[in-house]
């Protein structure tokens, strides 16, 4: 069974093309749930109108699905609560000048 840490490490490969930073550092991953070999990732985008949602879903499924012992990957996009820069890591805030 994969760990949350392993899933988050895989999710670090999902990059926001406009900002050039990964979804974990940007605070766009809201949750990871694991039941056996099934992984569910809840994520958001920086804005509801952002057009990369389908691309992000595909990348989440691809990168997490490559982990050993992962049988299925499901992702859900949410905008509740809305994303804000407060959710970013300190490294991401520094890189973006916050």
In a nutshell, what does this entry contain?
By secondary structure, this protein is α+β, with helices and mostly antiparallel strands. It has three helices and three strands, in the order αββαβα.
Question: If you consult CATH, what is the topology?
Answer: GMP Synthetase, Chain A, domain 3
Neighbour order of strands in the largest sheet: 1-2-3
For the sheet with most strands, the description reads: 3 strands, mixed
Which spans of ≥5 residues are poorly predicted at pLDDT below 50? none
The pLDDT mean sits at 94
| Rg calculated over all Cα atoms | 13 Å
How many structural domains in the coordinates?
1
| Level-1 CATH class name | Alpha Beta
Instruction: Assess the beta-strand content as a share of residues.
Output: 15-25%
Give the CA-based shape: globular
Number of helices: 3
Report how far the terminal alpha carbons are from each other: 37 Å
Q: Helical residue percent?
A: 25-40%
Under CATH, the homologous superfamily reads Fe-S cluster assembly (FSCA)
Run of helices and strands: HEEHEH
CATH architecture: 2-Layer Sandwich
Summing up helix and strand content along with how strands pair, one would put the structural category as alpha+beta
The total strand number stands at: 3
InterPro entries: Fe-S_Maturation_MIP18 (IPR052339), FSCA_dom_sf (IPR034904), MIP18-like (IPR002744)
Pfam family, one: FeS_assembly_P
Domain MIP18 family-like: 5-74
Protein name: Fe-S protein maturation auxiliary factor SufT
